[in-house]
Amino acid sequence: MQFEQLTPEERVALPRPSIDTGMGLERVAAVLQGKHDNYDIDLMRALIEASALATGTEPDGPGKVSHRVIADHLRACSFLIADGVSPSNEGRGYVLRRIMRRAMRHAHMLGAADPVMFRLVPALVAQMGAAFPELGRAEALITETLKLEETRFKTTLDRGLKLLAEETSRLGEGQKLPGDVAFKLYDTYGFPLDLTQDVLRGQGRAVDTAGFDAAMAQQRAEARRHWAGSGDAATGQLWLDLRDRLGATEFLGYATEDAEGEIVAIVVDGAEQQSAEAGTAAQILVNQTPFYAESGGQVGDTGTISAPTGAAARVTDTKKAAETLWVHHATVETGTLKVGDPVHLVVDSGRRTAIRAHHSATHLLHEALRRQLGLHVAQRGSLVAPDRLRFDISHPQPIDAVQLRSIEREVNERIRENDEVRTVLMSPEEAVAQGAMALFGEKYGETVRVVSMGHDGNRTYSLELCGGTHVRRTGDIGALRIVTEGAVAAGIRRIEAVTGEAAVSYGVGQSALLQDLAGTLKVAVDDVPGRVSSLLEDRRRLERELSEMRKRLAAGGTTGEPELRSVGGLRVAFRVVDDTPPRELKPMADALKAKLGSGVVALVSTADGKASLVVALTEDLTDRLDAVSLVRAGAAAVGGKGGGGRRDMAQAGGPDGSAAANALTAIEQDLVSALAAG
């Protein structure tokens, strides 16, 4: 390299001339094989001939250039997918998608009616797999990704080319395609701008990109106006602006737990800053990250972000903002982090491993519940954390202990099979058609991850759409223990469980509790259930005896005659019964009514410092008096409100047990007033 070409007529000498032979792999191979064209070497020729065979055309005929594009782009796409890149509309995923679609358009130009590129993967693996074994390991993923993308793209391409032809037929010679038309093709029909430009370039046309950008800006403004963000409106607007300016965060966490990146924004107290020093709580955006952002029930990752300068931050949580931004909630611990700093991001591996185990166990648990309880069972919410999983399902009744143990046993059998956990990419429609379950509350894009694990004969045991992180094999879960089961709403049951080390710790803790209980009861561990049952029966017997004794005492003790007096000509039995459980007041009142024959009973219990009241009338008085009115008068004296029941028996309560005597006085006064009025 000797000159810098400034214009077609002007060039200047470089300050440091150098030599760049450009001798890459293909050119070296061309020299060694005596070829004058890189595409004639064996490395490329095998792929070109595979393309020709798949499309039923000649390798060196009119479609020669298309075969070369397909062969070259097939290599690039396959290596990117093997390295963990997935086609998307942002970042490096968008670069991959553009490469794939250019090759796919050339396959379309060759007349291919069906997807072609995925059929060429075996030829590429055979050609380069020995030198690059990652191609062989990722062959299934590469094949599925190419097949899915080309299947979807052919629909877009056919429709887009037809609409584009209609629009260009209205244009004059060499006239640009209006930007709003190009945007309509992109926004409504999924036809990307670069593909529109590629097609029109062959016609000697261009696109009004300024008009396209204006239409894009208008749509974004409209989206911001209608966006219902969470939290403070100003902060929500900030994240939308950052998304528009910076683009989406690229997530690398399926393939790695540490990565390099660049800080692209720092937010402190809801405002964008250029730096954050030690001690500052900040929200940090990086162009790409291995940190999983809280989604689909799985909690966000924690870990560290560090710069070559020595500055470092502790990440305490990772969340999404404006749908496509991964926000690292962090505290700067040393130095000062600045926008533009290259950083090393490291996820807390032990915590992520525990989360993975609980998430994969959730999938197995879901399937076991459906098989044992019925296909009506569906997820209605979940939490996947490092120390536990929480799983809400639709089910109309409690799950008994026998069923829970059977479900737990089925999940652990699948765990011990140590089956590979497999992930493929496909459209949501195709995934559901294959039997995959979509998770409640989750949003899905145009391409989804389908996670499968376990086998049941010739079919997959668990197949679900899921964007979370998972173990590599089911055996990595270790074991599952169901801890609790209960209701959280009508028709919704909640199961909590633990896996791995947490399951071991839970088991050890339960065993220790059982040993302590056996020691307290002075019996062997195996005899604890029988001993506890015996003690519970003894307690129930004693409670019955105590209740009967309280009734007799309330009704007058062993003499059989209660302590009575007269109010307004009526016989009444008004008593404060300290420490009597509220549930025993009604039976006491019935016993006293039987002793009275005709009259009014009022009882106030002061158990646990609170007041509970019951007022009862004999049948002959219900046409003159109302027990509900009387009990409400008493409730007001102990700080209560209201009361309810029937005319012959009503109850109420209040927080002030010390005012029990005042409650009886208030009931008596209301009784006198009622008799006078009647």
Identify the notable features of this structure and list them briefly.
Elongation Factor Tu (Ef-tu), domain 3; six-stranded mixed sheet; 22% strand
Q: What are the segments in which pLDDT stays under 50 over at least 5 consecutive residues?
A: 557-561
**Full CATH superfamily name of the largest domain:** Threonyl-trna Synthetase, Chain A, domain 2
Helical residues, percent: 40-55%
How many helices? Answer: 19
> Could you report the average pLDDT, rounded to the nearest whole number?
88
Q: Numbering strands along the chain, what is their spatial order in the largest sheet?
A: 4-7-11-10-9-13
- The CATH topology of the largest domain corresponds to Threonyl-tRNA Synthetase, Chain A, domain 2
Largest sheet: 6 strands, antiparallel, barrel
- Name the CATH architecture of the largest domain: 2-Layer Sandwich
Number of domains: 4
What portion of residues belong to β-strands? Answer: 15-25%
Beta-strand segment tally: 26
Radius of gyration: 38 Å
CATH class of the largest domain: Alpha Beta
Assign the structural class, choosing from mainly alpha, mainly beta, alpha/beta, alpha+beta, or little secondary structure.
alpha+beta
Please report the distance between the alpha carbons of the first and last residues: 117 Å
Shape: elongated
